[in-house]
Amino acid sequence: MHVGLLYSRIRRDEKLLLSELRERDHEVTKIDVRKERFNISEAPEAFSDVDLAIDRCLATSRSRYVTRFLDAYGIPVINAADTAELCADKVKNSLALEAAGVPTPNTEVAFTTDSALETIESFGYPCVLKPVIGSWGRLMAKVDSRSAAEAILEHKATLGHYEHKVFYVQEFVEKPGRDIRVVATDGEPVAAMTRSSDHWLTNAAKGGEVNEFEIDDEVAELVERASDAVGGGLLGIDLMETGDSYTVHEVNHTVEFKALDSCVDFDVPAAIVDWLETKAGETA
After folding, report:
1. Which of 74, 79, 83, 113 is 20 to 30 Å apart from 225, CA to CA?
2. What is the DSSP secondary structure assignment for residue 182, as one 8-state letter?
3. Numbers of helices and strands, H then E, in the chain
4. What stretches in the chain show pLDDT beneath 70?
């Protein structure tokens, strides 16, 4: 198998994948997308003889466009362009989960500060304001009062970029100080962890403590349904506990797994490469 690894920076996650691929004697071409030029009709030379490409781009914009070009070139890519499009945009992500009947936090989108404030007031305090594009818990705000809402909305309205003028407002879910990240391949859970913190944001990127989580039947079913909702692939499905059940608040398409690999008694990169070999066989 000849794998093209798309990247802009090689992190611990990519090193784990590269090591596993090379240990199995797969040919790997590292492709720095910042140095490539993508023609609308002809693939760059770097993609010659690549059987399968893996999108590990940090920047969402690069991920969305590069996967779209590879789709046009007929080069199989993990994850597919349509999946990247749905997962990269929180609005599209929420709509896909809702359409599939996957339990997900109540969400409204507004396009002016006045209508956004009406949504916030209707949800009550606290509620959550998120950027439509973003990761690692950045630019998210827990809104605790009307005065805080007015200030945050004004800041977003004056930031300049049109995406900040799409106000994505979500109900605040009272979780037990943690959320759950499941890494899955085409809906099949690989492994899972909890991310715990005293802060309301529990992302590992924000310093959340990670521990292995035992996947029960309900979580496994929700992971499969959430994966199907966005088209499958190598995904990170994020859930929160709601009493005796769960809600899925996000599906991630360029999922990081180094924290998961460090806290479970399971070889996560090996399981991912097992799946990649199967996918390559399907497209051969």
Report:
1. 74
2. E
3. 9, 13
4. 135-137, 160, 200, 202-207, 283-284
